[in-house]
Amino acid sequence: MTNEDRLKRQKSIRNFSIIAHIDHGKSTLADRILEKTGALTSREMKDQTLDAMELERERGITIKLNAVQLKYTAKDGEDYILHLIDTPGHVDFTYEVSRSLAACEGAVLVVDAAQGIEAQTLANVYLALDNDLEILPIINKIDLPSADVERVRQEIEDVIGLDASEAVPTSAKAGIGIEEILEQIVEKVPAPTGDPSAPLEALIFDSYYDAYRGVVASIRIVNGTVKVGDKIRMMSTGKDFEVLELAVATPKPLRQQELTVGDVGTLSASIKTVGDVRVGDTITLAKQPATEALPGYRKMNPMVYCGLYPIDAAKYNDLREALEKLQLSDAALEFEPETSQALGFGFRCGFLGMLHMEIIQERIEREFNIDMITTAPSVIYHVTTTAGEVLHVDNPSKMPDQQKVEFIEEPFVKAAVMTPNDYVGAIMELCQKKRGTFVDMQYIDTTRVKITYELPLSEIVYDFFDQLKSSTKGYASLDYELIGYQQSRLVKMDILLNNENVDALSFIVHRDFAYERGKVIVDKLKELIPRMQFEVPIQAAVGTKIVARSTIKALRKNVLAKCYGGDISRKRKLLEKQKEGKKRMKMVGSVEVPQEAFMSVLSMDED
Amino acid sequence: MGIRAAYVHIPFCEHICYYCDFNKVFLKNQPVDEYLDALEREIELTLKQYPTDHLETIFIGGGTPTALNEPQMQRLMEIIQRHLLPLTGDDLEYTVESNPDGVSEEKLDIMKTGGVNRVSFGVQSFDDGLLERIGRTHREAKVAQTLDAAAKRFNNISVDLMFGLPNQTLDQVRYDVTRALQLPITHISSYSLILEPHTVFAIQERKGKLPLPTQDLEAEMYQVMIDTIEAGGYAQYEISNFAQAGKESRHNRVYWENDEYYGFGAGSHSYINQTRRANIAPIPHYIKAEGLPVRKETPLTNVERMEEEMFLGLRMKDGVSFERFRTKYGVAFEDVFGDVMKRLLPNGLVEQTETHIRLTPAGIPLANEVFAEFIGEAQVQ
User: 3-state SS of A39-94?
Assistant: First the structure.
């Protein structure tokens, strides 16, 4: 193509994303748009097409970004090229959302006609505004009996400050309003600006691993042009690669000779190491590199860590291989080997959040068939020692002794909870329990408020979201962001089983809650750990001081009273089952400990 | 060695006890005569297919064998007489399970004439409140009466006792044992309540209406039972069974010694030619069955037989004899389970003599912990 052709084509490109609160209809809308633009025939349509992995489809959530190139002939008779970029909706993946938005000029904002604006609606809008996107609000699910389009239109104007007079009333489910939305995209979303002849600046907004192609980068060309055969450079690492393949997704991959300004597609260069393709990084040409990288690159850091240990020690290598394979398509997953006195050889793994952690765990168990013990998730603490050193501690058992610690800082978040009025008390109580500091409360409308609290990240990683949902009958929604580290009076609590310290059960707790938590945990462990042939004392200790204790009594009776002719086959099954049961527990010293025990140290409930 | 034990099942009852999961139905309107016909057919066919030289024990259980009326009981005796008694000799032990309630003197006479020389009564408890709680209709007074009548005809009588019953106290357990020891009996079986699925108790438990003693209290009750019964002159010879000298149940010994036996009747189990079989349980289907009324067959491997030898044999106080093991399996016990023993001995739950391996007194209440160790651990070529 000549430069003139490129510039002409550029004018017909529209790059947009769909942003919304969870379950407000983002994926269904994406499906309808694909249908409308003929990208897929209705026979080829599987519900929620853009969700790639089966696991995600099962859970009804999107994890990986995906982009498709669509052709649309508008009412004005002109042909347009639309790039639709799908984004994840869960709180764990905010960075990924921001990177996909950086690849767009516009965003279709989906608001549920019945629910109205929710916490993540706002969070994503702010992200879009930060990226200077043209925001097109639409009001979805008008088919619902409780839909109130005018109320929601007003809410959008009042709460966000966007002009919603032209917001398209839509029912993605019924296919109403789709064409109007596409017309608005063509009309209002600006075409990409940028110079196809300038030095190449391509934003990496996603990556995945392909068995044949290696690590594949999903890119948006901001400036310049890239062709197959070009030598490219990753600006964050300075490494060079040769472009083997360029493609766009229609959604089926379609090979291209070149990608230029405004294009959104994939780039393969036979890259083997996932670390060489970093989301947010800029790709440029080795021959004529750009002077500055595109803004906004940030290495995604895990927020939550846990220990993964195979129940069967012989499966250690299998676990390592599994983690390596998973990391190939999930750059955010981090892991490194670690040992525990209690559990043997395993790995300390870093995740973007609890959801990320659960998904990886499930995949390991399901795809690789490895039974594991997971230790309670932990955040990274900044520990300043008396010697003046600052340590980053991601494993509670590695916390230095109290005498050596000057002070400890922990990560804090600012959490925004949107809820109906009725539940304000319950939420404030919950946040207080989680060591939260009240920031403010705003009325969104006559029935709902937005409450903002500052909370330690460690207090919300485990079950805060679930507790929030259950104490508000599911109506509350949550969004949070890291706001940095603050000092807290924290101590390490150790758990001793049979007078031996079990390092894998250690956890960090606020000094004021130490006794209470210790008591809850020793009582809980007493329930969870099966009786052995001897008495097992359980103790919770801070330093050398025991703050709580309980005792698992010795097993007194495990015998079958009757065993006559007809009982023998059943007896065999019973004994086999008993034997199997023991296999699912980890022997810690001389005590058999089930998985539930390791998670129990985080639980706050007394039941 | 041929098959030396035969079990016969009579699946009829006049009342259903809340804890019972044996194959049984209410007697009313049941085709008892057709059942007995089918039973006779099964015995004939079985003996033809799997003959034996000598039967040492016959055990008629249920249900409630004594729920049969006098003519039906007579018929049953005749069937046994015709087909099984010819295979027996002077060493025969012929037991019938009885309800302490509703056994007429006439019925006892019929049994005696039929060759029965041992009776086992399901007493369970002497506490009327407990009896009602578990769904039994007899009461303490009736028990004494029935047992006196039985003692006039039989000199080998056993009673069953139960502990671990809802709301039962240690004192009640003591009372039950003491009362039992006053009766003209020779054998006591004492069982802790086992909660089985599909029983009235199971339903009550699901509804939260079954207040059972804690594990620790049950363990104490068990110990009290053992101590008191032994002090009364009965030796414990198996986990739940006690007998005066020479009065152990030889029929049940066949099970624990892992030897073969016939099982006749609806829902019965048999062990013949190293294969365990289970009979069809529903009575109409049992009656209609063509050929042998077998529902399921499980041939056992050598390893499975050795494992069963252990978890059955260790139930007996004397334990498992090394010599018997070698004769039966052609290999030394030490070679097969040597490693298991190394792991078990330090726990103090089993002990080893020159001739036997057996549970220690501490091991008896924790027997399953020992038994599980033998599963999947046999070292064979």
Answer: CCCCCCCCCCCCCCCHHHHHHCCCCCCEEEEEEEECCCCCEEEEEEEECCCCHHHH
Decide if pLDDT at B23 tops 60: yes
Rounded mean pLDDT, B46-71: 95
Give the SS3 label for residue A557.
coil
What residues have CB less than 8 Å from B308, skipping those under 6 apart?
A: A568, A572, B258, B300
Contact B371 A575 (CB under 8 A): yes
Q: Do A565 and B255 touch (CB under 8 A)?
A: yes
CB B52 within 8 A of CB B4: yes
Same domain assignment for residues B331 and B185: no
Which CATH number belongs to the domain containing residue B126 in this structure?
3.80.30.20
Residues of B in contact with A571 (CB under 8 A): 311
| B181 occurs within a structural domain | yes
| Cβ–Cβ under 8 Å, residues B356 and B326 | no
The CA dihedral of B68, B69, B74, B80, to the nearest 10 degrees, is 0
Taking chain A, what is the end-to-end CA distance rounded to the nearest angstrom? Answer: 69
**Looking at this protein, which amino acid is placed at residue B55?**
L
Residues B245 and B308 in one domain: no
The one-character DSSP state at A378 is B
Specify whether B182 is located in the same domain as B329.
Answer: no
Identity (one letter) of the amino acid at A337?
A: P
Q: Does A560 contact B191 at a Cβ distance shorter than 8 Å?
A: no
Q: Tabulate helix, strand, coil % of chain B (nearest 5).
A: 40, 20, 35
pLDDT (tens digit, 9 = 90+) per residue, A530-565? 888 889 999 999 988 999 999 999 888 999 989 998
CB contact under 8 A, A568 and B375: no
Count each helix (H run) and each strand (E run) in chain B, helices first. Answer: 14, 17
Report residue B203 as tokens.
């339903």
d(Cα A344, Cα A315) in Å, to the nearest integer? 12
For position A45, what pLDDT does the model report? 52
Are both B336 and B215 inside the same structural domain? no
Q: For residue B286, is it within any domain?
A: no
A559, A563, A576 ranked by CB distance to B312: nearest: A563
Q: Using CA atoms, how far apart are residues A96 and A17, in angstroms rounded to an integer?
A: 12
Q: Is residue B262 part of a domain?
A: no
The residue assigned the tokens 């009372």 is: B175
What Rg value do the Cα atoms of chain A yield, rounded? 27
Select the residue from A556, A578, A580 to test the B interface by mutation, using most B Cβ atoms within 10 A.
A556
User: How many other CB atoms are found less than 10 A from the CB of residue A151?
Assistant: 14
Confidence of residue A300 (pLDDT cuts 50, 70, 90): low
What is the Cα A217 distance to its own chain's centre? 20
What range does the domain containing B308 cover? 302-372
pLDDT (average), residues A144-153: 90
Quick check: A561 and B191 CB within 8 A? yes
- Specify the DSSP element, H or E, that contains B335: helix B333-344
Mutation site for A-interface testing, chosen from B369, B373, B377 by largest number of A Cβ within 10 Å: B369
Q: Give the domain-ending residue among B222, B256, B290.
A: B256
- Mark out the alpha helices in A368-416 (DSSP H runs): none
Question: Smallest CA–CA separation between B281 and chain A, in Å?
Answer: 12
ipTM of this complex prediction, to 2 decimal places: 0.87
Domain end marker among B223, B256, B289: B256
Instruction: Return d(Cα B363, Cα B347) in angstroms, integer.
Output: 9
Q: Look at residue B170 and tell me if it is in a domain.
A: yes
Same domain, B68 and B155: yes
Total domains in the fold of chain B = 2
- How far away is chain B from the Cα of A568, in angstroms, using its nearest Cα? 8
Nearest to B365 among A559, A572, A576 (CB): A559
Among A526, A559, A570, A579, the strongest candidate for a mutation testing the B interface, having the largest count of B CBs within 10 A, is: A559
The CATH code of the domain that includes B357 is 1.10.10.920
Binned at pLDDT 50, 70 and 90, residue A301 comes out as low
